[in-house]
């Protein structure tokens, strides 16, 4: 008999406004979330690894202009796209991460290559790209990643001179649009992946939690896999992903308690808005958020699909 397997994904948490969400956009977002979770689930169903499943799921969202990762990433102060990504394999605690890449179509695939084909865990900027090109990755022009919506968001942000919009033009302008996935495969292995364009109007080579193992991403077989989304400055300081894993491992908390304790407690206390997805060693899924929404989807151990946006769903 095959072992239980399941997968969960997110397309970012934050303030997502019902009143500004058009039916058309909602349908498009739900459809891409479903496409992503199904891409990962199909791999698990065929006996593939959790690692391949999370990378495949994240790749679908990187290719969609609707999320802040790959195509559709937010713009820096200099009107560039700079992307971060990380992946962790719970089998052997192997991990790969990249930060500040500008010309790699699917940053999550580069993070996986860093893990599998380099002696390192974390590469940045031009060096990370150079490694990618040596592995056969194509050079992708910045134009590919650019979307009108992100340009408008940047201009609005520049007017406010900050990182948070006071006027929301799009229903999810105040969303942290990172994407991520966690999976348990039929061999009992856990994996997690996270990919992002970071935050609008970022400067000075700013990097958030997403590519930092233990902050935005973690996977540990028999324990938990976690991918976070939210204002990275807070998630880094609370090492959110590692804290979920530690609470479960040492305090023997279940996945629901561990996640809620951090997201509604420690993280919120210091002003950190956002959420996470987590999946334990038995395939139990938990979505946690202290914001009004998080784009998310899952296919649980019974094969049941769910796709949701708002916190009260
Ligand atoms: N965590 C990401 C960062 O701070 C942002 C996000 O979740 O959208 O870079």
SSE layout and pairing:
Blueprint: E1 6-15, H1 23-45, H2 50-63, E2 83-89, E3 94-101, H3 107-117, E4 122-124, H4 125-134, H5 142-145, H6 148-160, E5 174-176, E6 179-184, E7 190-196, E8 217-220, E9 224-230, H7 232-237, H8 240-250, H9 255-269, E10 274-280, E11 285-289, E12 293-299, E13 305-310
Parallel strand pairs: 3-4
Antiparallel strand pairs: 1-5, 1-6, 1-12, 2-3, 2-7, 6-7, 8-9, 9-10, 10-11, 12-13
Bound molecules: aspartic acid (ASP).
The site of aspartic acid has 16 residues, from strand 9.
Please explain how this structure is put together.
With 313 residues, this protein is of the alpha+beta class. It has one domain (10-310): Glutamine Phosphoribosylpyrophosphate, subunit 1, domain 1 (4-Layer Sandwich), CATH 3.60.20. The protein contains nine helices and 13 strands. The protein has helices at 23-45, 50-63, 107-117, 125-134, 142-145, 148-160, 232-237, 240-250, 255-269, and strands at residues 6-15, 83-89, 94-101, 122-124, 174-176, 179-184, 190-196, 217-220, 224-230, 274-280, 285-289, 293-299, 305-310. Strands 1, 2, 3, 4, 5, 6, 7, 12 and 13 form a nine-stranded mixed beta sheet that branches. A hairpin with a 5-residue loop joins strand 12 (293-299) and strand 13 (305-310). Helix 2 packs antiparallel against helix 3 and helix 8 packs across helix 9. The longest helix has 23 residues, at 23-45. It starts with 5 loop residues before the first strand and ends with a strand. It binds aspartic acid. The site of aspartic acid has 16 residues, from strand 9. This is Isoaspartyl peptidase/L-asparaginase. It comes from Vibrio tritonius. Pfam families: Asparaginase_2.
